[in-house]
Amino acid sequence: MSLPEANPEFEALLNYLKHNRGCDLTGYKRSTLMRRFGHRMQNLSIDSYQKYLHYLQRHSQEYLVLLNDVLINFTSFFRDRDAWDYLATDIIPKIIASKQPNEPIRVWSAGCAAGQEIYSLLILLAETLGIESCLQRVQCYATDADEAALKQARQATYSDLEVSSVPRDLLQKYFEQTDQGYVIRPILRQNIIFGRHDLTQDAPISKIDLLMCRNVLIYFNPEAQASILVRFHFALKKTGFLFLGKSETLVNRRQIFTPVHMKHQIYTKGLKLDLEDHLAINPKSSKGQLAESLTSQTQFWQTAFETNTVAQFAVDISGCLVGANEQANILFGLTLDDWNYPFHQLEPGKLIAAHTSVKTFYCHRRPAILKDIERKTSQGTQYFDVAIAPVLNAKKQLLGSILTFVNKTDCKRLKDKLEYTNAELKRVSEALQTTQTELESARQEIHILAEDTHKRNQSSEGAR
Ligand SMILES: C[S@@+](CC[C@H](N)C(=O)[O-])C[C@H]1O[C@@H](n2cnc3c(N)ncnc32)[C@H](O)[C@@H]1O
Fold first, then answer.
1. Which atom belonging to ligand 1 lies closest to the Cα atom of 213?
2. Given 3.40.50.2300, 3.40.630.30, 1.10.155.10, 1.10.3720.10, which CATH number is that of 8-70?
3. What is the pTM of this model?
């Protein structure tokens, strides 16, 4: 996917920041960036990107001021209140129910701005678990690319206006009123680890139960969004939840997240990541070309697999369906919901159950062919030959298997017909043989009779 290079002078500016200031803004939407840069340039009375580039080169700290303008920090406590209510009544209880009583709960606010988001969540968790248990069990991470915002978040001090969205009883319980404003009680703050983290470049935090990244993705172009979502897939536990902002939509080419609640933008993990997803988060500098060529190779094989005229399934080492091509989907009526499902519980898996231990065939390292697998349908019986081929990686580790279902119904019908015709032919030729033998013996009898008659005639003539 190539980026729309709106303006070469502007792209030169972005490249300068990336290579000379370690500040990579190339993944952000150009329209937002240009507005924010324009705002900063207006303040400095600079009227072209080229002149602003010279200004940046001469003023080494200017990029920090610019960043402050570019990274929009707007936030509030319990922003989009109804989504937070849903989180409190549906999602938090689910997370707690999925755990042992003392098991840790790990949450991450990515793009936390001045901290209101992570404190809102911590308050909800303290309300549900009780403060003591919350302090024991909950591990909070709050990250942002903007150091100034993180500083504010660590201070946890908010104005009257900023706390106006916090319900009164919670304000009294979790805040201290000071001359500087409302401060989150220190005991709660000790549970949070704040840190600088760039979503487009840094490795994600792992084993997360609830990942909030609200009103951040909207600033990125689709390619950067997709790569951030892949990182989030890594970050979340299998049972974890992703909580996005109200106006955000998922852009990934495959459903690696599935919605739990569309309106409130809450998702769980969907499809497993594939090679292309992994490539999306590889740094694209010097490896860019390699990644591109690998991507096109991957696309080639993927298309070949998907459009193959015979039905094929990919089953991973744990026995779950991780891929099915178009023919397979049509033949067995599979949908995306069946992916990641144990293969032996799906119809094609059940069909071969009688012939092999389906629960273990995907662990075999040797290929196998199963003949004449029967499938009863309302239109009659179908027959398949199933080839099971192990898939090994370069280190000869088994990744799973590819199962190819070749429909032999027509062949089987022809074969049966041929067998029947051959049997008929044999029966008729045997009957013919019998008739010929009978004919021959009849002919011989006639011959003998004729000879006898001839002899008898001769002897009676001699007697006369
Ligand atoms: C509009 S605020 C959203 C704050 C909060 N999540 C909310 O919804 O109220 C966007 C935040 O994303 C942060 N941000 C922007 N780019 C980022 C990046 N590449 N990595 C991490 N945070 C980033 C900004 O610094 C800003 O604090």
1. 6
2. 1.10.155.10
3. 0.64
